[in-house]
Design goal:
Helices cover 29% and strands 25% of the residues. It has 177 residues and is α+β, with helices and mostly antiparallel strands. Strands 1, 2, 3, 4, 5, 6 and 7 form a 7-stranded mixed sheet that branches. Strand 4 and strand 5 (100-105) form a beta hairpin. Helix 4 packs across helix 5 (148-157). The longest helix has 15 residues, at 119-133.
Length: 177
């Protein structure tokens, strides 16, 4: 999907042309770009991410879940005039209580210079469209309480905010070096 973004009023007159925002599914050739964005995202939340432990050293599981059937995850890249500015990812989920599939959206990541320009909302919309196409009962998104982007998404998409506490129990201990 491609949208026009308004250029900043503070930009020089020549640079005030509308910018093209494109959100597209991640392809296998995008793996290194996606991993770099994931690392930026994790670095921006280093303290919050500590309980999860370090990421896997290789991308084998990431490639499997995104590109090999049965697919268990989906990801989208946001580009402005061809430059990657963010991503969103979601995994398949199931609710026993609703007896239905859901799509669980990770908190979208947008590079700081592009936050507040509608990129987050468009990534969220792409995930919502995917949930609808897959026949999911709902789209669920878990964001930190302090996430401005998540708060901005509530009203336009009529999301219901559900407060919860997330517990993380690691299944593996870190290797002793």
């Amino acid at each position: 999907m491609t949208l026009q973004l308004a250029a900043s009023d503070s930009a020089p007159a020549a640079a005030r042309e509308p910018l093209r925002l494109t959100v597209r599914p991640v392809q296998p050739a995008d793996a290194q770009t996606l991993i770099a964005l994931c690392e930026e995202h994790a670095d921006s939340r280093a303290l919050e991410r500590r309980p999860y432990g370090p990421p896997r050293a290789d991308a084998m599981e990431l490639m499997e879940v995104l590109f090999e059937p049965p697919f268990g995850a989906w990801a989208w890249l946001a580009e402005v005039d061809g430059a990657v500015v963010g991503y969103a990812s979601a995994t398949a989920g199931f609710s026993m209580l609703e007896r239905a599939y859901c799509l669980q959206l990770d908190d979208p990541y947008v590079r700081p210079a592009w936050r507040g320009h509608g990129v987050e909302a468009e990534l969220f919309r792409q995930a919502l469209y995917a949930a609808q196409r897959f026949g999911c009962l709902n789209l669920q998104c878990q964001s930190p309480l302090w996430s401005e982007a998540a708060r901005e998404l509530d009203a336009p998409l009529r999301a219901v905010r559900v407060e919860a506490v997330k517990y993380v129990v690691r299944t593996q201990t870190e290797a002793v070096v």
